[in-house]
Every structure is written in structure tokens, then in C-alpha cells.
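=== RUN LOG ===
request id: a7f3
mode: sequence -> structure
chains: 1
length: 701
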Amino acid sequence: MQWIDSLGSSLYLLGALVSAAAALWIARSGAEERSDRWAGVVALALTANWCVAAASFAQDSVVVSVTEIAKNLAWIFVLFRLFANDGRDESLKLVRPAVIAVALVELSQLVLVAVQQRYALSGESTQTIFETSSILRALTAVSALVLLHNLYVGAAASSRRLLRWNAAAMVGMWAFALNFHTLSYLTGSPVAELVAMRGLAAAIIAVAFAVGFNASAAGLEFSPSRTVAFRSLSLLVIGAYFALMLGLANSFDVLDGDIRALTPVGLIIAAGALALIWLPSERMRGWLRVTAVKHLFKHRYDYRNEWIRFTNTVGRTGFDESSLQERTIKAMADITDSPSGLLLLPDDHGGLTLGASWQWPSIDVPAAAMSAELTSIMEHEALILDFDEVRGGKEHCGELVHVPDWLRGELGAWAAVPLLHFDRLVGVIVLSRPLIERDLDWEDFDLLSIVGRQIASYLAEQSGQVALSEASRFDEFNRRMAFVMHDIKNLSSQMSLLLRNAEKHADKPEFRKDMLVTLKNSADKLNLLLARLGRYGAASNEQLETLNVAEIAHTVARRFEDVHPVILARAETAEVIGHREALEQALVHLVQNAIDASEGHSPVAIESFSDGVCGQIAVVDQGKGMSPAFMRTGLFKPFVSSKDGGFGIGAYEARETIRAMGGRLDVESREGLGTRFSISLPLKSAQAIYARPGTQIKETA
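=== RESULT ===
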């Protein structure tokens, strides 16, 4: 116990120095308009005097007892003067009797000291005086705390800002005194550790009280950083955990024999194992973070740190080779502590399809991920979908009926944030539920909305760069084609001239006949090639004709019968409107792609049928399949090819050819399962709906 006494003396001296310094600072630099200024100076000076006495004499000596009584009376008077700072001088008449009663209770300690010294009591009488003193001191502390409560609750808002530091310091002082004297009464003697800590408590209280006399004290607030708060709370939880383990270990003292020896050891092993599993967990850290933010800060987010992290994540180009789409998902998910997310991007029909996924492999996203109606609502209303509200039936803008079933049924889906660029929807990010569940609030909605707009600008910028690059490459392609077309045109003219000369000057009939056939076929092929090269963008001016999809499918299947197994799995007659040569060319390209993607002699199937509005031709293979990312960014992009030496314009040309006929080309694919391309062309019976003004349809037998 000697080291506790030495520590206590040192802390009392510290309390004396800090209290004296605080009194001197208030006397020289404290707010002069405060009516309790000099009362505070006297109270701090008497506190320093008591700390010196406690460091110099025994705790039960007369000097320590008398200086403590003087110190407490001074602080009671400071409490009385605090009521005047609120401008409630009239109310002092009501408070004065209560303060006098508290002071009389404290003065009764002098009677107990005098009795102890006058009669030199010992044994039970001394214990009785000690217990009486502890009860009276606890009563004084309770009364002071009640007065402080009434002072702060009844003060105006401006006065509360002025009194907060002084009131907080005095609450700490009287609360410590209440606990100290209560424990002393219950244990029958002062607790040595708490006796040693009284000097440190006096120093802390003196600093806080002096801060309250600063001219700008009304604007001072305790604002720890979020890192400090999180780590402090972590240390508090860890400390409480080990304190509990220590208490449990000590509680086994009631056991006897070998069980008593083995139980603490087993408990320590179990506690260590539990700590290794529990303390490093993401869920535990998430709970600590949410708790710290909820109780220590006005705002949920540290906006400066969040924005720095967001910018670094989006702008990072590390070794993981993650795409911009994946980085944008991660940047938004990090803000809400979501472990995964999806990016949905616009498709060709006004809805949304999967653009990218980040750490969410288990979710199954359909090809049509979100309808055009829901995207329109999210675009015009800037609506952030809270899926817990959706599942609870709460509606804001008529969106409930349009929320897809796959998102309703996925309980891990938490929120969908629209990405708006100049009020135009460029995508939607779906966030998964955080490990520590909580409800979305106004601060989440505000921050996610702003971050969504920033992400939209990044995606729009990338799209603009891609479009500019494609335009540049198209320009180069067009220049090359101009030279090619010029050379072919010259060659065609020369061959046509040769054909005319041969018709006039050939002598031998056999030679003339063979030459005419050869030259005529060559000229026809070259002219056909020229027509095809010059037809891009002009298909709408050609005359449409009625076609039978079953006949087209049969013709193309027959062309590949000696190359690869191509089966006509379904051949239903349906008359559509379109261009035979262009349709056959697009279908041949799709079948050839399916053959290239198939392994060995895996058959490729062609189906033709009608859905009542359109005639359908589908090409189905069981090949390698394509990833969602490639279908979005590479399949229909010019100059992007998965084949060695491929020019990368075939799929784009096939889609544009079908579109020029008023049709549509859709694709569904799963990696490892295969791919299905579907050509849809309007039925002849529906030509009134699909036909554009001025379009003529040629009847064919």
C-alpha cells in the first residue's frame, strides 16, 4: 500500500498546482462580466489549499478535515452565484434557503471533528462518527447535484452555452464525491485507490472550470475525431470485456479443490479464444463504428474523409485491373459499409441491364434488370429506393408496382441509388445490406444523392471518350473504304470495257463464250460488292419485301450442312417485311459466330416462329458463352473482336442491318452454357404499325 500513498501524494500536489494555476488565470484573464468570477477564484484557491494539506498530513487529521470543509463551502457558494448568471436575480430568493440548508449540512462536519478531538473517541464511537460523516457528505453531494440540475434545465439556451463548462465541472466534482463517500460508508473505511485519485480529480475539474471562464467558452465543444472516438470506444469495449473475465475468474474463489485451480485457467483459455474470434470481426468493428457515430457526433459521416476516400477509389488504377464501373460501385458501397453492389446501365429499350458487379457473385440478375417505367420514375424524381420500405409496402412516387421481383426477393438488397447527369439517368447502383443493419435516414439520402451525381459525371465522361474514340476510328475506316471503293470502281469500269470490246472483236465462238461468262460474273460480283459497301445508312431507302422466316432459316441452314452440324429445330411459317439479302447476310454471320464459339461438333440450332407481333429467327449454341461485361462493352462495339485477326465490325453490322429493316437483335448468354441471338422483324400483318411514312412493301410470290 506504500506505493498507493506515494502516488496519492503526487496526485494531490498535481491537483494543488493545477487548481492554483486555474485560480490565477481566472483572476487575471477570466470573463470580467461573470458575477461568480471571484467566487470561483476563492473556491479553486481553497481546493489547492486542501490538496496541499492532503499531501502533507494523514487523511483523518484535523487540518485535512477543516480545509475540505472550507473547500466544499466555497463550491456551494459558487453554485449559488451561478444562478445569477442567467439573469434570474429574483429566483435567488427561492434558491437561497436550499443553498443555506446544504451549507449547514456541510458545517455539521465541524461538529463531528470537534467531538472527535474533544473526547478522543475510539473503537465503535469513531466508526459511528465516520459513517455519519460519510452519510452527510453524500447528502451534500446529492443536494448539490439536484441544484445543478435545476440550474441547467431552467436556464435559457444562451445561458446554457455560457454555463455548460462550469456546470459540467461541478457535476463531475460532486458525482465523484457522492461515489467516494457512498463506497466509504458501505466498506466502513475510505477506499485507498479512490483516496489517491482525489487529487487527479481536482486537477481535471479545475481545468474544466477554468475553460468556462474563457471569453469564447460558449462556442467550445468537445469534438473528438471519428478515429479517436472509434478507437476509444474499442478500448472501452475491450477493457469491459477483460474486466468481466477478471470478475468471473475471481468469483470462482468459492470453489474448493482441483476445480478451483482448473476453472480460472479454463476460463482464461476460453476468453482468449473468444477474443481472437470476436474482436477482429468485421461485424464487431461495424457495431463499434455505428455506436460511436450515433452517440458522439451530430452527423453520421465525416464528409472530408468520405470525399477523399471516394476520390481515391474512383481515380485509382491499381494492379487489380478493376474497371471504372467496378470502382464506382466500391466507392459508393464504402460510404455505407455495404459489402457488395451492382451497377445497372441503360439498355436499348429504355430499361436497365447489368453493367458490372462488385463482390456479389451469388445474385442472379435477369437480362431485363429494371423496367423503363421504374427508371423513368427514378430519373424524374431523383428517387433513392429503400428496399425495406418497398417490402413494407411504403410508396413515394408510384414506384411499388414497377420494382422487379428479383430485387424484392433478394433480402440482401438494401438501396438503389440513381446516377443522374444533367437530370438524365445514366445508371443505378444497387447496394447490399451492411453487416450491422440500420435504417436509411435523411443524411444517407443526401450524401448518396450527391455521390450518385458525381459518379454519373465520371460514367458520362467515359462514355464521351469512348464515343469520341469510336468516331475517330470510324473516320479512319471511312477514309480507307473510300480508297477501296475507288479502286474497285475503276476495276469494274475496266472489266466492263473489256467485256464490251470482247463482244465486238472476239473471233472464236468458244473463247468468246467463256470470256463473256467469266467477265460478266466478275463484273456482277464487283458491282454487288460496291452496292453492299455503299449501302451503310441507306437501307431505309430500299424497297421492303415480304419474306418467309422459315424459308430464310432453311436456306441458311443448308449453306452450312457441309461445314458444321446446323439443325433446324423449329420451322414455323411467318411472313415478315425486310430485305432478303441483308437478312440472310446477318443470319449467316450469327450462325458462323455460333459455330466458332462451339466446341468440336456441338450442333447449332436455328428456330423460326411467330410471337403474334413479330417473326422470330433464333440462333442457339452451346458454346463458351459471354460475360455480361463483354456483352455490354464489346459485343456490339465496332473494332472490338474476340477472334484473332477479326476486324470487329460484323456483330455491329448485323445489328444495324436488322435495325434498318425496322427489327431488333437481342442476345442472351451465360458463361459456360451458351448463347442465344434472336432476330425480330415485324409481321406483314402488322405492317400498318411498323411501316414508316413513304415505305413501300413489294409483294413476292
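=== NOTES ===
The first strand starts at residue 341 and ends at 346.
The chain is about 60% helix and 10% strand.
=== END ===
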